[in-house]
Amino acid sequence: MSKESQPESVLLCPLGTAAAPETELLCIFGTGDMGRSLGQRLLQAGYRVVYGSRRPHSCGPLPAGTQVMSHAAAAKLATLVFLCVHRKKYDFLETLAPQLNGKVLVDVSNNLKEDVYPESNAEYLQRLIPGAHVVKAFNTISAWALQNGPSDANRQVLVCGNCAEAKQTVVAVATKLGFAVLDNGSLSAARELEEFPLRLFPEWRLPLRLAVGLTATFFFYLVIRDVVYSYVEDGKDISFRIMVSLANKVCPIVAIIMLALCYLPGVVAAILQLYRGTKYKRFPDWLDRWMLCRKQLGLLSLGFAFLHVLYTLIIPFRHYVRYRIAASTILKMRENTTAVLDTTLAWRTDSFYSMGILGFGVYILLGITSLPSVSNALSWREFSFVQSKLGYLTLFLCTFHTYLYGWNKFLSPSNYRWYTPPGYMLSLVLPSIVLVLKLLLLVPCVDRSLTRIRQGWERTDPEDASKQALLM
Amino acid sequence: MSKESQPESVLLCPLGTAAAPETELLCIFGTGDMGRSLGQRLLQAGYRVVYGSRRPHSCGPLPAGTQVMSHAAAAKLATLVFLCVHRKKYDFLETLAPQLNGKVLVDVSNNLKEDVYPESNAEYLQRLIPGAHVVKAFNTISAWALQNGPSDANRQVLVCGNCAEAKQTVVAVATKLGFAVLDNGSLSAARELEEFPLRLFPEWRLPLRLAVGLTATFFFYLVIRDVVYSYVEDGKDISFRIMVSLANKVCPIVAIIMLALCYLPGVVAAILQLYRGTKYKRFPDWLDRWMLCRKQLGLLSLGFAFLHVLYTLIIPFRHYVRYRIAASTILKMRENTTAVLDTTLAWRTDSFYSMGILGFGVYILLGITSLPSVSNALSWREFSFVQSKLGYLTLFLCTFHTYLYGWNKFLSPSNYRWYTPPGYMLSLVLPSIVLVLKLLLLVPCVDRSLTRIRQGWERTDPEDASKQALLM
Amino acid sequence: MSKESQPESVLLCPLGTAAAPETELLCIFGTGDMGRSLGQRLLQAGYRVVYGSRRPHSCGPLPAGTQVMSHAAAAKLATLVFLCVHRKKYDFLETLAPQLNGKVLVDVSNNLKEDVYPESNAEYLQRLIPGAHVVKAFNTISAWALQNGPSDANRQVLVCGNCAEAKQTVVAVATKLGFAVLDNGSLSAARELEEFPLRLFPEWRLPLRLAVGLTATFFFYLVIRDVVYSYVEDGKDISFRIMVSLANKVCPIVAIIMLALCYLPGVVAAILQLYRGTKYKRFPDWLDRWMLCRKQLGLLSLGFAFLHVLYTLIIPFRHYVRYRIAASTILKMRENTTAVLDTTLAWRTDSFYSMGILGFGVYILLGITSLPSVSNALSWREFSFVQSKLGYLTLFLCTFHTYLYGWNKFLSPSNYRWYTPPGYMLSLVLPSIVLVLKLLLLVPCVDRSLTRIRQGWERTDPEDASKQALLM
Question: Membrane-crossing residues (chains A, B, C) (predicted)?
Answer without folding.
Answer: 206-224, 253-275, 296-314, 352-378, 390-408, 428-446
